[in-house]
Amino acid sequence: QQQVKQSPQSLIVQKGGISIINCAYENTAFDYFPWYQQFPGKGPALLIAIRPDVSEKKEGRFTISFNKSAKQFSLHIMDSQPGDSATYFCAARDPTGTASKLTFGTGTRLQVTL
Amino acid sequence: DGGITQSPKYLFRKEGQNVTLSCEQNLNHDAMYWYRQDPGQGLRLIYYSQIVNDFQKGDIAEGYSVSREKKESFPLTVTSAQKNPTAFYLCASRDGQGGSPLHFGNGTRLTVT
Fold first, then answer.
1. How far apart are alpha carbons B8 and A110 in whole angstroms?
2. Cβ-nearest to B43 among A32, A42, A104
3. Buried-most residue among A2, A44, A93, B63 (CB within 10 A)?
4. pLDDT digit string (tens) for A67-111?
């Protein structure tokens, strides 16, 4: 059972455009929603994260929008640049049990063209 | 320079052989994790360890084994029982504080033929 659904699978955006990646979750116990950025041949790196008591968080060109009632959250990349070309993963943390674990979405491959 | 070191970067094995992937961290983190990454499937948790000499199965532990004899080290063995071992394997760690982020190594790509 996929607990975090991510879309689209791939995305092509022109330089300067807005990239939008969406995620939906089912488990209302999730309490922390990070986004990771992964370049080819590298491990994922934390990009930005949000907690469910906040509807939006912005860091530079990256913004997370969070809709608790709809159980959805999204990543917006403003003024997308070729250097943003990477795979992006959303994730959600379940704090219950003996250890908090992250459940990841399936990833979105972003390509920013000139 | 603190971080997580995974070695080797590429690993090739014949079917039927066990293989051990190395993961070392100098971040003084308590918790360590192994994930498997396959195209279109995201990251799936294999095993995790919160303290030395203790570890728990993740979502896809079958065919894998781990040990945690030292805080810095969390090696993963891919056994011959793993049906589809070819994948990109990622090690991660975080400290024991709630809300602390997960730090990843740069992965080992294992190819079994």
1. 28
2. A104
3. A44
4. 999 999 999 999 999 999 999 999 999 887 656 688 999 999 999
